[in-house]
Specification:
about 160 residues; mainly alpha; 2 helices; about 0% strand
Length: about 160
């Protein structure tokens, strides 16, 4: 059951009007006089409120400005502190990263040297293998020649020794 606010306000307003009329009749005050009193009361209340607001408004503005400045200072100092912490953190990790980078580079150089050396050795071995194949052919020919020469040289070699 939802009651409409406008209806409630109208009812209460009518009740207030009836109460005012009955009290005026009992006290013998005319309605015009009461209206003048209410009007003067409202104007006085309005003037008093305006005076208070006029005094309070600049004071409130000053307070707001001070609060704003203090908050800005606090935020700025907090931000600066956080920036310093972040820079410090970055610097520390930058040093660590540089050390790691140096280690990686040294390791990469060692591995590249070893791979290069292995490649060079493999090339040398391949070259030697091809040379050995060619030298073996020559060696067989020399061996045949040496065998014939050896017999004669052996006798002379024994004399020298």
């Amino acid at each position: 059951m939802k009651i409409d606010i406008d209806v409630v306000i109208n009812r209460t307003w009518k009740e207030v009007a009836k109460n005012i009329e009955t009290t005026l009749k009992k006290n013998g005050l005319p309605l015009d006089q009461l209206q003048k009193r209410v009007k003067s009361f409202t104007t006085k209340a309005e003037k008093d409120l305006m005076k208070v607001m006029d005094k309070d408004l600049p004071q409130m503005l000053k307070k707001f400005k001070k609060e704003k400045q203090s908050l800005e200072k606090m935020v700025e100092s907090t931000i600066q502190d956080e920036i310093k912490k972040a820079k410090k953190f970055i610097d520390e990790h930058k040093k660590e990263l540089n050390k790691l980078q140096d280690r990686v580079e040294k390791y990469a150089q060692k591995t590249s040297k070893s791979t290069n050396a292995a490649k060079k050795k493999a090339k040398k071995v391949a070259k030697k293998a091809t040379k050995k194949k060619t030298t073996k052919k020559k060696a067989t020919k020399k061996v045949a020649k040496k065998t014939t020469k050896k017999t004669t040289k052996k006798k002379t070699a024994k004399k020298k020794a």
